[in-house]
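Archive record
______________

***
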Amino acid sequence: MSGDKITVFADELFRAERERKAVPPLSGRDASLTVDDAYQIQLVNIRRVVEMGHVISGKKIGLTSPGIQKQLGVNEPDYGHLFAAMDCKDGVVNTAELLQPKIEGELAFVLKADLSGGKVGREDVLAATDYVVAAFEIVDSRVADWKIKLVDTVADNASSGRYVLGSVKLGPSEVDLSSVTMKLYKNGSLAGEGAGSAVLGDPCVSVAWLANRLWGYGVALKAGEVVLSGAFSAAPPAAKGDSFTAEFSSFGEVKAAFR
């Protein structure tokens, strides 16, 4: 795809986020759009946001469950960038800043060492991780009605929105992360449940996948970064006035309130 077309799509998504007006799917307007093109579109806007003074705080991994991959016709996850401004430290999410949010319960890895190279494995992730916490990822799409294919969500920074981190910090070897269970409640009612095994079999494997995928673009995961490893269950929609609690075995609760 030409550089001009990549810039046009990047500009469109950039405006959509800031004007809170979703755009038609990119995939429906250009059948030649590839995943590599979509990552180029994503990176155009990441560089733009960094130039505005925002700080990258980490990465997020999406499409880790077999069901979602089948739905989108893909056989691997995707990734996007997190910024410090996305961190809802008090658990309060400002819905006025989002278009059509949904919420996912997952585990977040906070790194103490860089992860780089194309042959990162589970043991490398364990060695490079400072601690793991429960987390909410608030996903949001700048594509109208969530009518997305893989290239749409990749170009749209993997539908990144906001995130909330829990308070219980455990070393990655203190608990079998694949057996961690979660129950997600929306306004007091059970809205989803799952286990770490839903995340590529093991959240550590998900982080290793990301490190290796990034290396193909000459990028490393950095010490201090947050890595959202992937959802334990489907993401229910969220709206102003909603409250969510995710209860994790070993990791306690994480809460989010939409205002």
About this structure: The radius of gyration is 17 Å. The longest strand covers residues 129-139. The domain at 3-258 is CATH 3.90.850.10 (Fumarylacetoacetate hydrolase; domain 2). The helical segments are 3-19, 35-51, 66-72, 122-128, 150-155, 203-215.
